[in-house]
Amino acid sequence: MNGLRRYIDKIKPTFSEGGKLAWLQSTFEAFETFLFTPNTVTKRGSHIRDAVDMKRSMITVVIALMPALLFGMWNIGWQSLVVSGQWSVVSGPQAGFWLCFVFGLVRMLPLIAVSYIVGLSIEFAFAQVRHHEVNEGFLVTGLIIPMIVPVTTPLWQLALAVAFAVVIGKEVFGGTGMNFLNPALVARAFLFFAYPTHMSGDSVWTAAKWWGTDAIAGATPLGEMMGGGIRPTASLIDMFLGTTAGSTCETSTVAILIGALILLGSGIASWRTMLSVVIGGGVMGIVFNLIGANSYMQMPFYYHYVMGGFMFGAVFMATDPVTSAQTNAGKWIYGLLIGVFAVLLRVGNPAYPEGMMLSILLMNCFAPLIDHCVVAVNIKRRKKRWVRARTGQSVE
Amino acid sequence: MVEKIKIHKGLDIPLGGAAEPRFADRRDIALYGIMPEDFVGFTPRLEVHEGDHVMCGQPLMSDKNNPRIRLTSPVCGTVKEVRRGERRAITAVVVEKDEVQQPWKCDTESIKTREGLIEAMTDCGLWAMMRQRPFGTIANPNDKPRDIFISFFDTAPLAPCPERAINVSCLERAINVSCPEMANNRQWLAAGLNALAMLTEGMVHVCVSGQWSVVSGQLADNIIFHEVTGPHPAGNIGTQIAAIAPINKGEKVWTMNRQDVATLGRLVTTGEYVPERYVAVTGPAAAHPQYYHITAGASLGELLKGQLSSANYPKLALSSQQLAVSGTRVISGNVLSGRAVGVDGFVGAYDSQVTLIEEGDCYDFMGWLMPGLKKHSFSRTFLSGVLNRSDRNMVTSDQTQVTHHRSLITYKFNTNLHGGERPLVFSGDFERVFPFDIYPTQLIKAAIVGDIELMEKLGIYEVEPEDFSLCEYIDPSKTEIQSIIRGALEKLRNEF
Lengths: 396, 496
Prior knowledge:
The structure holds 2 protein chains of 2 kinds.
Chain A: H1 2-15, H2 25-35, E1 36-37, H3 54-83, H4 86-91, H5 97-130, H6 137-147, H7 155-167, H8 183-194, H9 196-199, H10 221-226, H11 236-241, H12 253-266, H13 271-291, H14 295-298, H15 303-306, H16 310-317, H17 328-348, H18 356-395
Chain B: E1 2-6, E2 31-34, E3 44-46, E4 53-54, E5 59-63, E6 66-72, E7 77-84, E8 90-97, E9 104-105, H1 114-124, E10 131-133, E11 148-151, H2 168-178, H3 185-199, E12 204-208, E13 223-229, H4 237-244, E14 253-257, H5 258-270, E15 272-273, E16 276-282, E17 290-295, H6 300-303, E18 328-332, E19 339-340, E20 353-358, E21 364-365, H7 383-387, H8 399-408, H9 440-449, H10 452-458, H11 469-474, H12 481-495
Parallel strand pairs in B: 1-13, 11-12, 11-14, 12-13, 16-20
Antiparallel strand pairs in B: 2-8, 3-5, 4-7, 5-6, 7-8, 9-15, 10-14, 16-17, 18-19, 18-20
């Protein structure tokens, strides 16, 4: 490691102020700090600091995403080769585990690569122009975006969506920490509204067209329910395990729950937000069960947890510390309303099968207002105390 | 009557190098220095010149805005040097001690009244130890405080705290043996508290941690004891004020450190001002962490002789400017809110602790990815946090648990920032180490943008920078929160 360190120290002047490649300073810095935690020391105040930094927080989230990502890769293969029946058409026998996984890997990697390359290029450029260090936030956003789109999303559309999310969703507000909408959901919403034909319907969820044959449509459970189904074709267990059609990596509730354990265990994500989203969704589901006006409303409320992106949203999106409510009481309100609106949109809205994305984006907008109201209670209490102290003194 | 208060939020950082409960041999320290920077809002006007002979209690500097507030010489001697820093601001006035010492004296009869006491305290310089909240400045002798708060214990990392020391009776015995003058401490503490009770029409709130019967003697009626337990910052005066009677806008409360209360008690009992105290030299880089008996303002270079000779820490920070190039940082105060003064500095006016810690100017290969067995973090993102959870809710008074915890994992602490500075991302962790009825996140934001009205609404008057030291410690975006709060408080103070 010393050799590497020496080499970095040797080339550092080239990238520093006055060096030949000074215009790449932020980029160099990003790679340097990627390799070595910097030798910066504290100056005053707390002379020692907690070992955690943004890189560590972000990498913890990336690790928490891994189970869902790996399962998603396998499921892409499973859906495209086995469920759609394509593999047996082409070659006869059923596709094995590794074939499914490798197929999914091959389909997934370009999506991830495009997301990271486009997003990080923009991040690096903005950091350079602002003379900032490159922020780690995109490590997570850049991985989440390909995990929540249909596997058939054209790469150029994904690139556009990522660029839109990074520039309009984040950088115009000043970068990570300043944005009020979850950038990954901004990308998803961009795709959804700009290219609706590629984002909905029954045929986009399987990569079967690769074989040149027409896909046997694999409808998502949410799509089936919106189409007037009594219950999804897939069983509750299938949906819990995630062997159903859907966006690339959001189908498996169990894989997402493993991620949730990592997030909660490491203390990175708020349990209040996660729990309250689940409660909110459940409450709304039960209300619909009680009304029971159509088959969708009659569907047991817990089906919502395992269908579509509900759990993925609750665990990885609603908990984004930047765009969620920041007070503890606010987190409860914020999470409950996300759950309520997600189920409300699913059941009540005839236009979109999935309500989670719009529900979180909506509550992202309201999070500052929720915090404002929570803090206002504290302010009022302080003011009351002040008035009491003043009047108390004047009596004496 | 003792009221019990339990603080639930906070964090005890498992830093190694606590002082052994023993006193080093008395050593003859020649140089003493008063550093105006220790006193918030104090604008120094020099009262002496280099070469002047001064007596103990004779003013070295006075406040340009309030001449009654003076910083006096802790010893009889000769003014050796007036140190100046940037833009010729005075950084220290250094006095070389004479062979023969004579304490400052007054008539004990004249200080039986409130006015007489304040007069004597301002005269000898003990008044500078009386601080007010909000703002943390030296109290204005013309004010009448709502209440006076005294914390008899300290929960900061490695803080010298007789009540929390690992072996209380052992330390008490050590004090009796090596500083017989301090054996009177309990009587003096009582006398000091009674004197303070004269200064306010409100209450004198004394917070103890409950392990040591700390005072002996009759106490005035308006003195109340509170037994406070919990993790750091339970011992911080700000936490205690917030738990007992929070400061409202326009109110002022006064605070004083435990040892200065004893000095005050000695003043009212004997008429002598003797600014003696014990100070603990602590920290992972200290060769022999232990207690010393000193006079206020003692030179750190002389005090720390032998402490830094260890082969592991060959290089020393000579001054605060040289921090980054040296091997060991010398902090007057605790590691969370103390000031790096360098080895040619002096024991800070309000400090009874010196912390020595290794500089962290080294690189860490893939530090963000490694399991991190020796890294301490409030979050559990490192393996150390997963393997060893006991530091999260460590019961501080239970010594067996402390030992148990240390034997599991020895954390390596240094001054490395452990990351790069980033825009603030609030994860909600601040709220878990901030035991105030205040939203820290919102208050920090208001302080950053300088919105005075909002800061007032959110309770800025109830806090001091040190109250945010744990927030600063755990902050993953590495923001200097204490500096932000200090800046905000200074802005508010200048508005009045």
